[in-house]
Amino acid sequence: MTTGLKPFIGITGGIGSGKSTICRIFSCLGIPVFEADKAAREICEQDTAVKEAIIAEFGPKAYLPDGSYNRAWMKGLLQKYPGDVAHLNAIIHPAVRQKATEWFAATPDAPFCLYESALITPQKKPEPISQIITVDAPLSERIQNIQKRSNMSYMETMQIIDLQPKPKNYLWGADFVIQNGKNNQVFPQVIQILKAFTCFLLLLVGQSASAQIKAMTFNVRLDTKSDGLNQWKYRSKHCGELIRYHQADIIGLQEAFLHQITDLEKELPGFGWFGKGRDDGKAEGEFSALMYRKSKFKLIKESTFWLSDSCDKVGFGWDAACRRVVTWGQFQEIKTGKKFFVFNTHFDHLGKVARRESAKLVLRKITEIAGKSPVILTGDFNATPDDEPIQILVDPKNPARVIDTEKISQNGHYGPYSSFNGFTKEQEGKHIDYLFVKNGPVVLQHTTHSETWENKYPTDHFPVSAVIRIP
Which residues are CB-contacts of 104 (< 8 A; sequence separation ≥ 6)? Predict the structure, then answer.
């Protein structure tokens, strides 16, 4: 289905999550909503071909003597044989999507239209749907919502919930998430999405061939027992949650051991990653790995070099206390075909000479590897904006320089300025994590993410992100 510039956005979530309420809010704000579940009910009653297919698959008991759909009998059958849900969906869903296509063509102008359904996930979305909004609510509140409207027992409620995808299936890869628990303010989240798509439509009109990326630099803190209750095993899930919630597309990791990366892989199944352990060029020591959303980007080539005089092999550089690396990849944005490079690094924390020479080497290697292609550089540089390494990187007299994304963000900066918290609080004067660009990328937003859970931080650095448009 061709939708032109107007997006058709899926809105989904588990039963009882409150997606219908969210849709009513969108509708009041002028956003047309196609109710897929309502359309499915009408099709089961009125579409002759669908009725015949259901009877052929499930038998004559699927319909009552008066020809109406035997919903209660089918519900009991599907609870007894959950595998039959897929067979029923295979009959109904093509007809629903055809109806959605006709409805979409007839809708008035709007920034976007919504396709409401409980049974779509980012991994299995209907062909017309370009992006997914997931409505999420705590399980206990979902159970209460279902029982309130349907007068079901707890066991019946859980049977219905178990027939649907698990919460992680809805959340992994979702483009937007609306938290709809009792402690959440829903309307501001809806307004934020409305603003995002309104701006997105305007952007498409003027820049229809541009790629937009949310890049993040994320020092996850190495796994060490000395961190006590801040040890990795207590934080890994929350690092993954943070990345998912903010819909990062490409993440430059620092201080990550191999097992930490594989832990994040489990939390982010739609992502690929690459990199090398800095201590042996294989699996030993910390990685400066790059993670990327596989559904959005094709990895063309990748490599790692060391921050040293002999950068193609494992080694220490200058007065560095540790071996340090740069991991880089060339990507192609699948939808637009745009190609670009991403470099990720972690400068030494002690060696002043090493940081200075590392900055020079990074600029030289970016020019050598990427040429005139668009570039994103992420990292923990262990240097503040006024320090020599950063001044070298952004030197306006140097044609090889990079540009700090915070300085050119069209919507300014949001969040703390310092990026180090030491697991306690923002540390004044510790702005050491950056995203830089080169060769044309436009920066729309720049953010330092300072969320906590139960007064704990996911890591001892605040992740920093930027929304970047590739020319």
Answer: 1, 3, 8, 34, 113, 128
Strand-pairing partners, residue 342, are: 329, 376
> Domains in the chain, please, with CATH?
8-204 (3.40.50.300), 211-470 (3.60.10.10)
Enumerate residue ranges in the chain where pLDDT < 70. Answer: 1-6, 108-109, 119, 123, 126-128, 197-211
Name every residue whose Cβ is closer than 8 Å to that of residue 282 and which is 6 or more positions away in sequence: 276
Full strand arrangement of the beta sheet holding 375-380: 297-306, 325-333, 339-346, 375-380, 433-438, 403-404
Prediction pTM value: 0.60
Binding site feature residues for ATP: 16-21
DSSP state of 255: S
Binding residue ranges: 16-21
Rounded to the nearest 10 degrees, how much is the dihedral formed by the CA atoms of 397, 401, 402, 408?
A: 10
pLDDT digits (tens, 9 = 90+) for 313-346: 999 999 999 999 999 999 999 988 999 999 999 9
Predicted confidence at residue 108, as pLDDT, reads: 62
